[in-house]
Amino acid sequence: MWESIWVNAHIATMVGNGDYGIIENGAIAVAKGKIVWIGRHNDLPEHDAQTIHDVKGKWITPGLIDCHSHMVFGGSRAGEFEQRLKGASYEEIARAGGGIISTVKATREASSETLYKAAEKRLVALMKEGVTGVEIKSGYGLDLANEAKMLKVATRLSEEHNIRIQRTFLGAHALPPEYQNNPDGYIDEICAETLPTLAEMGLVDAVDAFCENIGFTPAQTERVFAKAKELSLPVKIHAEQLSDQQGAALCAKYHGLSADHLEHLTEDGIRAMARGGTAAVLLPGAYYFLRETKKPPLDLLRQYAIPMAIATDLNPGSSPAHSLLLMLNMACTLFHMTPEEALSGVTKHAAAALGWRDCGRLKKGYRADFAIWDIEQPADLAYRFGCNPCTSVVRDGVEHAV
Ligand code: NIG
Ligand code: FE
Fold first, then answer.
1. What is the band of 18 on the pLDDT scale with cuts at 50, 70, 90?
2. pLDDT of residue 95
3. Closest protein CA for atom 1 of ligand 1
4. Which H helix or E strand runs over 84?
């Protein structure tokens, strides 16, 4: 039995390679939150759908997925933005005790309710642009109580909003003040206590680490990954953002879901990612906002057919970006992606980067999560910037205005 059907739509299914998988004059039928039929309107069989939605020639794409965000945080780093404009670098600010650590202080001081209200605004901004799935990292608490506080806020966001959320533990994001000069001691605490306890509390879906000269070494990162593996949690990594630490290859060794940033990634790293089945997540907002000049190796990633996702990296320090659509435009202008690659990057490849196998494409059996757009062609989503053509989203088969 069909429950609802959307007719009179042009559909970018994102099935297949390189052409958006377009169905012109198409229809999508839904039952129990899943797509039960999709195809050309002319081929529509007799049906008993109770609700018929006339899309009136608009476009439908899979619901967008923001697969890398740090949207739960306290405070603001607008002051650091000003410092950077006067010449200080992101690394200098971090080494001087600002950067991530200043957000840790503000996040520890904030109540759950304050964190929730602030994160909710950020989430709603994304959802208005057709986002139906996001990833949210911890990593500004850096102790058991505060990491739990952040992950509970992420859990509550998924309960109170019509959105699918992956919660990622990023305890190895920065060194907390209690462990100054003792990073190995902090990694001991993560492995012996913080991560197993949070996993036991059911608050963790995946594990991330910031492998960088201002973050953690590959050896320290690997200890966290080994613990994640023991707990059967998938891993991902912030790698090769500011320097080449061969973090992507390390993550691939653990068959990580994704390696993210990747400006300094080498061909060896890409080969390892291909072997490990690890997706690339490119973050044009951070590249832009930190005024980086070294681009991720797009041609090599293409050559090895690595799925390339795009995300906001929404965070207060390196990417206060509240628009996933803007990231599509930036991925094209800054990284020379095609509009089709960019849209793949926030749909099917973002789903791959989260290990979500039933969304990111529009196809029979997949979740009925899609966005409806007032555009003339799918490339408009990357071509236009600063406007929002999303008119509604369908999530689990139910349409909501944005
Ligand atoms: O993805 N690189 C580490 N983490 C974030 C930045 C976090 C921050 O500056 O607060 C990132 O860029
Ligand atoms: Fe990040």
1. confident
2. 87
3. 313
4. helix 78-85
Pocket probe mutation, ligand 1, options 84, 150, 173, max atoms within 8 Å of Cβ: 173
Confidence (pLDDT) at 73: 98
Identity of the amino acid at 220: Q
Determine phi and psi for 323, rounding to 5 degrees. -140, 115
Q: Please name the residue whose Cα sits nearest to atom 12 of ligand 1.
A: 318
Asked if residue 58 and residue 70 are part of one domain, the reply reads no
DSSP string, 27-49: EEEEETTEEEEEEEGGGPPP---
| Average pLDDT of the residues in 338-354 | 98
17-21, 27-31, 115-119: which has the minimum mean pLDDT? 17-21
Q: Looking at the structure, tell me whether residues 194 and 327 fall in a common domain.
A: yes
**Which pTM does this prediction carry?**
0.97
User: Phi and psi (nearest 5°) for 377?
Assistant: -155, 155
List, as one string, the DSSP characters of 124-144: HHHHTTTEEEEEEE--SS-SH
Distance CA 5, CA 292 (A): 46
% pLDDT > 70, the chain? 100
Q: Is 51 in the same domain as 69?
A: no
Q: Which residues pair with 179 in a beta bridge?
A: none
Amino acid identity of residue 109, one-letter, is E
Contact 360, 348 (CB under 8 A): yes
Mean pLDDT of the region 96-103: 92
Q: What is the pLDDT of residue 97?
A: 83
- Residue whose Cα lies nearest atom 6 of ligand 1: it is 318
**Structural domain range at position 132:** 64-354
- Predicted local distance difference test score (pLDDT) of residue 348: 98
Ligand 1 binding residues, C-beta < 6 A: 70, 99-100, 103, 210, 238, 241, 286, 313, 315-318
d(CA 35, CA 364): 5
pLDDT of the residue at 124 = 98
CATH of the domain at 183: 3.20.20.140
Q: Is the pLDDT of residue 2 over 90?
A: yes
What are the phi and psi torsion angles at 252 (to 5°)? -65, -35
